[in-house]
């Protein structure tokens, strides 16, 4: 058992008092064993909330084609919310989030914690797919999901607020990146990919437009085509190779052959070890993320000639991501989170 607290179900004459027991995969409600109610933590189920005064006052579960609400101490309810926020979909939480940016409707403020988050619209397929994958992950270069809830027949994921712009836009604004920048970006990406592969997750569509860049930090933000698999997949590595190719050349990799890629890299004075790594990632079908991270590219310094060539070509635009136009930011339109509370808690109970 992870959590236990008391609750009550209000009736017109006498209230009924119960004990809530919270386990890793379910909660039970009852006076003794066996409990009267049992509710599984799955994304197919919904945990309903009643919010008043920006505090959780009651929770509700689906039972016999009806929603049954139970009142409890708001501190206990907040603990329940924290524990199961990525195990089950919530309802009636829109009141706790306030949209705070006219230009970016996806930017919201948690009115209880006063922390800023991002809202992302999801369909039912994305809810079952992306949230199921992401809820168990914890890596600095992978977008984290706080919780998901439904509002006006629409599913939302509440994610960490990042700001910044897509890596694709950043490369377009800064066509000549330094060797250290390229190395930092691909290192973060490969470490995130190694983490995913260690958890038997294949991303499948790693692209610069699905990576968020801010202050030299990279985040993978899209998992719409990701799958869980125990098979070794090399497409992720090839996609990382295409990104490293783009970082050094500022050009999209368009399924060029080996010689074309080699000539383009040399024409852009790409360091020798970077050329070798890119070619291996793009054309060696047996090359893994683990081999990539052990490549000499990450341990050997540039020779004097390479340093001179990179310095001569380095014309980075001195413009931070915080100065980028809002139109370049990665965001999504979110309808206004209006709450129409027409029934009192007693009426619901």
From TrEMBL:
An annotated GO BP: mitotic DNA damage checkpoint signaling
Alphabetized InterPro entries for the sequence: Prot_kinase_dom
Pfam families documented for this protein: Pkinase
GO molecular function: ATP binding; protein serine/threonine kinase activity
Ranges for domain Protein kinase: 82-349
GO annotation, cellular component aspect: cytoplasm; nucleus
Protein name listed in UniProt: Protein kinase domain-containing protein
